[in-house]
Amino acid sequence: MQPSDLRRAGAQLGVPLDEDQMERLIRYVGLLEQWNARFNLISRRDVGRIWSRHVLDSLSIAPLLRLNGDGQSTPDEKLTAVDIGSGAGFPGIPLAIADPHIEWHLIDRNQRKVRFLETVIAVLGLENAAAYSLDLGAEAPRHLLGRADIAVSRAVDDPAGLVPLAEPLLGAGSRMILMTGASGTGPTDRRLPDECTHRVSAVHDLIIPGLDRTHEVTIIERVRT
């Protein structure tokens, strides 16, 4: 993707990108293509549509990260976020590039993918990102407990299973932004277990440049402590 096209797509998503951010995104895609040829980090059928299917799709939720409970944007507030099941870095790496004031913790249980994330973070000089090889179903990362303002996850087909894993990482006033799939194919049952401290507050359909179907995003907010 050419920088002019990337800038235009970012503007469509409400995500202004400067020259440094665009260069980092382009370098990230280059690293992904190199590693994917050896380690199959993303589906082979997605290689020709990395930008629309993965990068722009990830950037689409950037404006939602800074909306408070009243729907007001908080552009300068320092926030801490976790990306659960980050895989090859989606959505966490593009979001870390787009907003350097959000501290990102990228979690995945696949050690090879985490090594890739660590390489990306080092090569791109992302001081606001770190990657961890963790299985949240088996171990609690003590250094992250109760710290996060936001949890995100992509390709979520079971919010009821993910939310209890994410909640220990989240602090007061926290939210989850779950990318629950292409609109019309997401989960039909968003009910969460009674013991959860979060509940679904909104569902958005986001238009992604280059894709022929909107992406469904489910917002889950804390309702009790």
* Gross geometry: globular
CATH topology: Rossmann fold
| Biggest beta-sheet profile | 7 strands, mixed
Range of strand content: 15-25%
In total, the number of domains comes to 1
Q: Give the number of DSSP strands.
A: 7
Label the structural class.
alpha/beta
Helix share of residues? 25-40%
Low-confidence stretches: none
Global mean pLDDT: 91
Describe the 3D structure.
The protein is α/β, with parallel strands linked by helices. It has one domain (3-222): Rossmann fold. The chain is 33% helix and 24% strand. The protein contains seven helices and seven strands; from the N terminus they run H-H-H-H-E-H-E-H-E-E-H-E-E-E. The chain has helices spanning 3-13, 19-39, 50-59, 62-65, 92-98, 111-124, 159-166, and strands at 79-84, 102-108, 129-133, 148-154, 170-182, 198-206, 215-222. The chain has a seven-stranded mixed β-sheet, sandwiched between helices. Helix 2 packs antiparallel against helix 5 (92-98), helix 2 (19-39) runs antiparallel to helix 6 and helix 3 packs across helix 5. The longest helix has 21 residues, at 19-39. The protein is globular, with a radius of gyration of 16 Å. The termini are far apart. The mean pLDDT is 91.
Short description:
The protein is α/β, with parallel strands linked by helices and 225 residues long. It is 33% helix and 24% strand.
